[in-house]
């Protein structure tokens, strides 16, 4: 009776509505830096934009595209295709305008991941016959790259805790990130795909931590530009350290 209807409704939401909403939110966040990047390109000056996360966006989305091909999952495909193309464009613009030190960091990161991707493709197409083993390899690599991308806001969070000011955190972006993570976590659990559920659950927790910090230290002056909130503090820290190579894994 009513319980069956409830379960059916929950199944429809988690299997269809949640990933559809997650697709829209994910692409919205991928598009959020576009205006700032275009302004930087026209002015030939990056200003406060940090180009180091852009290659991470590109490879993260590219690996999830490969995973979507293997799983024949259109939700994953369309939630990462725009990000892959935008990340590549952002990387080209940022590389052309950034310092020599950051150019080297982008070159090392991109070259390393290119090799990893090529080796993975070789293994999947020629040496790994079991479909489940292929899925595990592709999912693990996509998760690793996603965790690298998640590492960037950590510097901002540490700065907020240290200074007791949430000025570098943006409430709407944190809310959207948390909701996006929850939607994909629910979808991953519904289809029993933990390569989708686990990293997005962690992303939702990270966004939740940001929201807690905003509440605790809300007296600080809020940042009003969502395109720079996750990179503003790392930009300052690198400027203060005379452009040393970052310690981030990407």
Regions with little confidence, pLDDT below 50 for 5+ residues? 1-6, 221-250
- The backbone outline, from C-alpha atoms, is globular
Structure summary, number of beta strands: 0
**SSE series:** HHHHHHHHHH
Distinct helical segment count: 10
Task: Describe the secondary-structure layout.
Blueprint lengths: L1 H30 L2 H10 L9 H19 L2 H24 L2 H28 L3 H20 L1 H12 L7 H20 L3 H23 L15 H9 L10
Helix pairs in contact: 1-4, 1-8, 2-4, 3-4, 3-6, 6-9, 8-9
What does this structure look like?
By secondary structure, this protein is mainly α. It has helices at 2-31, 34-43, 53-71, 74-97, 100-127, 131-150, 152-163, 171-190, 194-216, 232-240. The longest helix is centred in the first third of the chain and has 30 residues, at 2-31. 78% of the residues lie in helices and 0% in strands. The protein contains 10 helices and no strands. The relative contact order is 0.14.
In short:
This protein has 250 residues and is mainly alpha-helical. It contains 10 helices and no strands.
Characteristics of this structure?
disordered C terminus, 250 residues, mainly alpha, globular, single chain
């Amino acid at each position: 009776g009513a319980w069956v209807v409830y379960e059916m409704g929950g199944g429809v939401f988690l299997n269809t509505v949640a990933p559809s909403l997650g697709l829209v939110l994910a692409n919205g966040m991928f598009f959020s830096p576009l205006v700032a990047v275009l302004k930087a390109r026209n002015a030939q000056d990056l200003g406060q934009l940090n180009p180091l996360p852009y290659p991470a966006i590109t490879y993260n989305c590219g690996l999830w595209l490969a995973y979507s091909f293997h799983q024949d999952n259109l939700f994953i495909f369309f939630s990462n295709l725009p990000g892959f193309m935008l990340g590549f464009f952002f990387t080209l613009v940022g590389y052309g305008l950034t310092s020599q030190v950051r150019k080297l960091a982008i070159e090392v990161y991109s070259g390393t991941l290119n090799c990893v991707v090529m080796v993975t493709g070789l293994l999947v197409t020629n040496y790994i016959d079991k479909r489940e083993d292929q899925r595990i390899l592709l999912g693990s690599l996509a998760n690793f790259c996603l965790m690298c991308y998640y590492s960037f806001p950590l510097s901002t969070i540490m700065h907020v805790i240290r200074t007791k000011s949430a000025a570098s955190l943006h409430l709407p972006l944190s809310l959207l990130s948390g909701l996006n993570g929850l939607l994909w976590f629910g979808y991953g659990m519904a289809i029993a795909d933990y390569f989708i559920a686990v990293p997005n659950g962690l992303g939702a927790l990270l966004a939740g931590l940001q929201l807690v910090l905003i509440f605790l230290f809300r007296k600080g002056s809020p940042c009003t530009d969502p395109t720079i909130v996750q990179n503003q503090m790392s930009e300052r820290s690198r400027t203060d350290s005379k452009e040393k190579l970052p310690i981030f894994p990407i």
